[in-house]
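Recap for those who missed Tuesday's class. We walked through two folding examples back to back. For each one, the amino acid string is listed first and its predicted structure tokens come directly after. Nothing is annotated here on purpose, so try labeling regions yourself before you check the end of the notes.
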Amino acid sequence: MLRRSSYAAASLERPRLVAPHVLLGIGALVGVLLVLLYPYQALVQYTINATRGDTLTVAYLRNLLRTDPRNPELRLALVRQSLARRDYEQARADLAPLLANGVDRDTLTEARWVDWTLYESELLSTAPWSSRHV
């Protein structure tokens, strides 16, 4: 059986550095500041216009596409990112739904143009003596 301490300090409550409601207020203030500094539309537009092909942008576009799978602009941006990374198989897999589904004429034209660019980049990246280059 455990014995309780008979010291007076054992019954004292430890002092708080910050009250819970103040901590909650600081968290809400930081959240509001982040929303004001990085609005959703501006962040999405920046991601769509990015051409670096970095992993973070690809992951962000994949997550955005998961929330809106029928958005052709996001899909084309993801294909362009894969193209910048020279990941041609992934780019073809991401582009296939746009070429197969009935999308509007402008989107289909853009998808075909990106498909041509993909084919051209893949062809130029292969060695001239390989069987793929023929």
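Example two. Treat it independently of the first, because the proteins are unrelated.
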Amino acid sequence: MSLPRPLHALTTAVVVVTAVLGPARLASAAPAQDLPSADQLKAALLTADDVGPGYTEAPASTESPGPSDNPTPVTGCDALSALVTMHTGQSSPATPHAETELDGPDDGNPMVTEALTAEDPGKLTTDLNTVTDAFKTCHTITFTAGDTDTVTFTVTPVTLGDRQDAPAVRLDGTLAGVQLNAFIGVERFGTVGMAFGYFQRQGADSQTASMQYRTAVAKVERTLGTTAGSTTPPTATPTQGLSV
């Protein structure tokens, strides 16, 4: 997919969240049979039909990310920068993972991203705490996209959904005179972590971002049989199938 140029730096922001919730760090562990499968996580993701008319699903990447695949320098916030550099691994049976990118009707604008990762409850708690602390301590962050484009975003904690405790931030910046805005949130569903991103240019529509986030949360709850913020594992286990 070829993104509109001003969005290249902004979409890098979602890596901040998906990196720490990503599947790489347990790659050598034995598969956890009580975790939802990658197929179940995929079924719980948003689709173009869920988010509204004019959206299309971006083709799935066939390559696993590696350190050289995400060379975008990040400065200005050590906590978030550290999370970005963690994005170095591959999917593993021990940490089932699924993600999607939905491009809006205006040449890919706005854009919705969502990633779901299942992992050991204790590890997930640690990972979510890491993201929460990073969101709280970061006030600005600078991305360099390509050879010359640099954009500094202000980072503001917000509430995206119904849970006041669910970590979320708003990012605002400009690149080549173009207004860029993002809302990034994370949520827990027992043994599943969700990373959600809503990206837009020439606008800062918080109501639509919140609506899409709530839609994502509701679909995960319905599909996996759990509730947002719960530490109880989803009831839709691999042997039980899905309830959609």
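Answers for example two:
Residues 41 and 98 are 6 Å apart (CA to CA).
Residues 1-6, 24-31, 62-71, 239-244 have pLDDT under 50 and may be disordered.
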